[in-house]
Structures are given as structure tokens and as C-alpha cells.
Specification:
Length: 327
């Protein structure tokens, strides 16, 4: 996308992210990580790095997916190299003491889709974030293969409905993922202390901006496609998955000149969110502990959500896809 379309804070975050990803990739390759996996697996970043929005305070969220015959010990060696590389580059430690740092098989991402086991495993998150906010670190061939295999599983009925295929399966899963995020936030229960209250406020603020944009930029993209045509192809889905949430917004902006002002307002609001969160966690918690500050930021988050909903309602109202998103 042209840099002139992007607010300055977003441009700076992109530059920072590209620098950090390049450093990480170079260190992993020097450690022999890419030679270790060959074409059998990929490593992709999600979170702020996957979205191209990393700051100096960002942690690193990664997933490893095997698309071939990656040996178990080689998988363990790869994870160890990831831990060493992130520590050397001074990323924050992996969340949950590395609880989610594991090798997923592409067969699991597909086989568990829509099943009860999908909901309570990290496979659901690995699959949705692969589609919605991933950036390949190693194994680009395996990464592209994983993307295409997952898309094929959502587009399984496409060949029988090419002229008017609606991506209902994927849209429902994206909507479900957003709802799971919201429920997971509430599952934490009442805060036990002032610091816990501040953490919940900060997490809610991030949920209603970055996580909301991750999910709904994809739905906006699909709705925009259907506004121009009556069908969404596998290649359309692949193109969507290779874009960051911000870039999806920019594509929608270019395709819908009548909504450019609305999307510019969204971009400005998101840039303000990134500026607000561009500080250490301790500093952010101190601010969100203040009731008046929290109320102001909560109102900003509500406005951002209202803008997203109004835009989606407008773009999707002409398609039958919309009724599957509002029930």
C-alpha cells in the first residue's frame, strides 16, 4: 500500500516491525533453523508483529506448523532455537512460560475445524490467526502451503457454487473467534486488586481495537469483494490472508470511494490507539488505574467499534452474507 495513505504512527510501527522481523530471521538462519525444517514446517508471527505494528515494548507471538514430515526432535530443536533467538534480541519472554509454544500439524488445523475439540485447543487460534494476522518468519513454502490447505477446507463447496459462492463457513468462524476472545476476557472474573483492575482495563482497550480490527477487517474485506462481485474465490481468500488488517482496510478504501472518509476516520482512530499503547506495561497500567482516564479510553474504544459496525453494515447489507453475521 502507498505510504501516503497511512498515518505516520502506523508507518513508524511498520518500519519497526520490518527491522525486528529481519533481525529475528537472520539470527534463526544463522543458528541453522531454516536448514533444520527445510520445506517441512513454517514459523509465523502473530500479534503486533504479525500485524506490522510492533513497538519496542512488543512481545513475540509465534506458531509453528508442520506441513510435512518434521521429526519430533527436530521440532524440539526448532523451539529451542526460537527461545534463544528471542532472548538474544530482547523480546519479552513467551507468554505463559512457553505454554503455547508447540508444533502443530497442518492435518490438525484442518481435521479439527468445526469439531468440539477445535474450541478447547490452541489449534483454533493457530488456524484463525494464520488467516487473519500472520507474517512468515521461516519456511515460506510451507507457510503458503498451510494457508492454501486451510483455505481449501473453508472453500470445500466452492466448485459447486462458483458463480455465487459466499464464504459463510469462514465468516462464521471469524465471528466465532471474536466471540471466544470476548468470552475469554470475561472468564477472568472480577479483579482481585487495583493492579488486576488496571490490567483488565488495558486488555479490554486492546481487545476493542487490535483484536477487533484483526477479525472485522477480514469481514469488511469479504463484504467489499461481494459488493463488487457475487462470489469469492480461493485466490481472493489467499490474497486477503497475505495482507495485514491495516492493509485490508486500505484495499477496502480503494475499492469503495464512497466510504473513504469513514475509513480515514478509522485509520486515525487506530493510529491514536497505537500512540496510547506505545509505552511500557508498567506505565500503561499506571494510567489505566486512573478512573477518569479509563472512562475516556473506554469511550474511544466504543466509538471505534461503532465505526467498524457502521461500515460493515453498509458494505455487507447488499449481500446475503450479512444475515449470517448479525444472528
Amino acid at each position: 500500500m502507498e505510504s501516503g495513505n497511512v498515518p505516520e504512527p502506523l508507518q513508524q510501527r511498520r518500519i519497526r516491525t520490518n527491522e525486528r522481523v529481519t533481525q529475528l530471521r537472520q539470527r534463526l538462519m544463522a543458528a541453522g533453523a531454516e536448514a533444520l525444517i527445510g520445506h517441512s514446517a513454517c514459523v509465523y508471527a502473530t500479534g503486533s508483529v504479525g500485524r506490522g505494528e510492533a513497538s519496542e515494548h512488543s512481545d513475540l507471538d509465534v506458531f509453528v506448523v508442520s506441513t510435512g514430515e518434521l521429526k519430533r526432535l527436530d521440532g524440539i530443536r526448532l523451539l529451542a532455537k526460537l527461545i534463544d533467538a528471542t532472548e538474544a534480541l530482547q523480546f519479552l519472554p513467551f507468554s505463559g512460560d512457553g505454554e503455547y509454544l508447540q508444533v502443530h500439524k497442518i492435518d490438525e488445523l484442518i481435521r479439527l475445524l468445526g469439531t468440539p475439540d477445535d474450541d478447547h485447543t490452541n489449534v483454533f487460534t493457530a488456524r484463525l490467526l494464520l488467516l487473519l494476522e500472520s507474517r512468515p518468519i521461516l519456511g515460506t513454502t510451507a507457510y503458503d502451503s498451510a494457508l492454501r490447505q486451510v483455505i481449501d477446507s473453508y472453500w470445500r463447496d466452492f466448485d459447486d457454487h462458483k458463480p455465487d459462492f459466499l464464504p459463510i463457513f469462514l465468516a462464521n468462524d471469524i465471528s466465532r473467534y471474536w466471540k471466544v476472545l470476548c468470552v475469554s476476557y470475561e472468564a477472568a472474573g472480577p479483579p482481585a486488586s487495583d493492579i488486576e483492575k488496571a490490567k483488565r482495563r488495558l486488555n479490554n482497550y486492546k481487545l476493542k481495537h487490535s483484536r477487533l480490527l484483526t477479525c472485522y477487517s477480514a469481514l469488511l474485506y469479504l463484504a467489499s469483494l461481494l459488493r463488487q462481485a457475487k462470489s469469492v474465490s480461493r485466490e481472493d481468500a489467499f490474497a486477503m490472508a497475505t495482507l495485514t488488517p491495516l492493509d485490508r482496510l486500505l484495499v477496502v478504501r480503494e475499492a469503495n470511494p464512497d466510504r473513504r472518509q469513514d475509513i480515514d476516520t478509522l485509520l486515525a482512530a487506530y493510529a491514536s490507539f497505537l500512540e496510547t499503547t506505545d509505552d511500557s506495561k508498567a506505565a500503561l497500567l499506571a494510567r489505566f488505574a486512573d478512573d477518569e482516564y479509563h472512562v475516556t479510553k473506554r469511550q474511544e474504544a466504543h466509538r471505534f467499534g461503532d465505526l467498524i459496525f457502521a461500515l460493515l453494515s453498509d458494505l455487507a447489507s447488499e449481500s446475503r452474507l450479512f444475515r449470517y453475521l448479525v444472528v
